[in-house]
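U., I forgot to send this yesterday:
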Amino acid sequence: MATSTSRSCLQYLLHLAQDNLDFRLPEIKALLALRGKPFQPSGNFQEKTPFWCLDGLSEGDVCGVMARSVCAKSAFELWGHGQTHSELRTSLLNYPSENMSPFMHKDSTYRINVYTFNKTLEFADRIKRIDAMEYLPFEGAVSLKSPQHIFCLLEDYGTDPNDIPEHPNYIYFGRWIADGQRELIRSHSVKNRHFIGNTSMDAGLSFIMANHAKVNENDLVFDPFVGTGSLLVACSHFRAYVCGTDIDYNTIHGRGRSSRTNQMWRGPDENIRANLRQYGTEEMYLDVMVSDASKPVWREAALFDAIITDPPYGIRESTRRTGSHKDVTKPPDGIYTESHVPVSQAYHLSDIFTDLLNFSAHHLVLGGRLVYWLPVYRPEYREEMVPLHPCLRLISNCEQTLSSHTSRRLITMEKIKKPEEFDSLAQLADTHFSPYQGHNAFREKYFSGLNKRCAKEDNKSVVNGE
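Result:
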């Protein structure tokens, strides 16, 4: 195959999945940043469309992105495009022949696929479109089963399934380069995982979080609210060393009631290590331990390349930390018996996020990223609610809608400087760094909205005589 250095004026076309729309751009930007490349869209870039044209990349860059991305379906070397087939023909005939010739000589084999977005074509119509491209100077033989080169005609019929135009809004033609990693969503599905809990993170979102964090081979990744380790599974897939903590003894040790239907108790080997073993990444597992996130046990040093976590919101998992408002008698020697269970108290969301950002500022390496979920009550949400820190720069803020009144936002931050003594004073003086206390009422607002919705449905049933 010809190298990209011998060919000029190359553009690449990404075909993206039409789910998790907010998460796609930060993921692609992060994966390009891992290769030291900026995100340079060409033409009239529209973030919510399924097709993006990118400039300034090599084929190796594109392959590197597709080897990680779960938001992108496929990537192509773009040869031509237009609003009509006539414009596409003109564009293709103007494409440099030296860029085409390595893939069209007589000793090569090829296949042309037709893909339509938001519309289904009959087989005969697909054949007509392929036959209409006879003006391309293919000299090789067609091979449907094992071609050396695959080309694709892509037609975009918009994103509204209720208003599909007769003719495509835009048409692209290019050489297939690589597919994304959408298969990971199925292969790592929580449904088939050995050890799960009530709040185990969806596989697709776990890989998106790892990509937003720019997790790379041999990185050290930490999850302070590790739960059943879904985020560790995703990061270990990208060959990062993983560790975590959680205040829940039973979850860390894989004991207690099972979250599976028709299973009362967890089995003897249901734990986070077993999950990594299931996916062949056990060698990347360092360890997990029972620990209170509000009282870090780590030495004062920049230890982690990434901190990725999903803090409890008080909905399916309680927000607790060790301690008590009452006077608790401690043993004279300060040593508790093995059966001692620490007293716990409420851990407000505003405190969770303040502690998480402070911990990240002290324990991330420079350039390391913090990625976490922030639950919000949608009617009241505004940008100022996102916690900030003098040492961390906000990279992206993506929304996942949970209901008509609630959502959670995936926050990505990057460490830009080491903590200094006056940072704590700056946090007190600048209202931008003050924790938003409204987060503490998220649980009450969540159930308040839920109760109102149930009441409306009940009233509707009464009116309809059900």
